[in-house]
Write a structure and sequence with these properties.
There is one protein chain. The strands form two sheets. This protein has a seven-stranded parallel beta sheet, sandwiched between helices. Strands 2-1-3-4-5 form a five-stranded parallel beta sheet. Strand 10 (230-233), helix 11 and strand 11 (256-259) form a beta-alpha-beta unit. The chain folds into two domains: 4-98 and 290-307, Rossmann fold (3-Layer(aba) Sandwich); 100-281, Rossmann fold. It has 13 helices and twelve strands. Helices cover 34% and strands 15% of the residues.
Amino acid sequence: MPDHRVLLFEAVHAKGIDHLTQNGASIVYADGFDPDSIKRAVGDIDAILARAQGKIDGDVMDVAPNLKVVGRHGIGVDNIDVDAATDRGIQIVNTPVAPAESVAEFVVMGMIALPRHIVQADAATRGGHWSFRNEVHAPELMGKTLGIVGFGRIGRRIAEICSLGLRMNVVYADAFPAPEEEEKRLRARRVELDDLLDTADFISLNVPLLDSTHHLIDAWALERMKEDAYLINCSRGPVIDESALVAALRAGSIAGAVIDVFETEPVPGDNPLLELDNVLLTPHCSGHSLESAQNMAMVASDIVKVLQGNKPDYPVNHPPSPRQPLT
C-alpha cells in the first residue's frame, strides 16, 4: 500500500508494529495523550492505533483530514467518539477476542488471592512472620455463587472456568439472554441484577462503559451485597461509584474488592482506595498476558485492511462511505 502514517500514543507489542511497517506504514508517536498533544500530532495522520489513554473525539477528527481508521487495542471504545467517527466516514475497529482469556484468568486469580491474603502472606513470609499461616482462613470457591454482570466473551469464559472447573454456582445479569444451549453448557442461570447482588458471594463486572452502566454499582447496589461478598472490576472504572465503594469497604458492608480499573487513570496518589487493606489493586493490566498483548496489537491487521480499501474483520461501526479528505 502507499505510505500511510499511523499514530500511537502508547507502545504496543512489536508484532503489531511489524505488521504495519511490513505493509508500508510509517509509525508516528505523539508526545502525550492529552488533547493538545494529540491534536498537534494528527494533522497528516491516516490511522490511529489507540489504547486506553487519549480521547479521540470529533475535535480531534476535524484536525485530521486524512484520518480513515482508528484501531482500538482491546475491546472498550469508550475513549473514542464512535458516532462522530461514523458521521465523518471514519472506520473504528477493535480486538474483541484478544484479551478474553487473560481477563478471565485474572478474575479467577483475584477471587482466590484477595480472600486468602496472598499479598500479605508473601510479605509475612519474607519478614519472618511464619505464624501468619494461622491467621487467615479464607472461603473455598467450590459451592459458592458467582454473579457475572455482563455475559459476553469474557463473562462466559469466567463462567466456564468457575462452573465447570471450580464447581461454583453461576448466575448472570445481562440485557440479552445467552442461548439456552450455552446456559446449559455453562450451568449458568440468568437473573435480574437485584437478585444477583442479593445472593452472589463473588461478583465480576464485565460490561462496557455506557450511559446505562455508568455507576451501575452505586451505594444502593453495594448495600444490597452480602457482607461477606467480594466485588471484582476488570471492565471500566466508572462502572463503580468509587466514593461509594470506599465507604462500603471502610464500613465492612462488603468483604473486599479486586479493582483493576479506576475512575481516574493513572490513579492519583490521594485515591483513598490506596489506603485500604481489604482491596487488591492493579494498574489496568488484567488483559495483559503475553498472548493477549500480541493479539491486541494485531488490530494492526484491520488498520491495514481499511487503509488498503478492504473490509475489516472486527468493525465497531459501519460508516456509510469511506472518509474523503476535507477540502
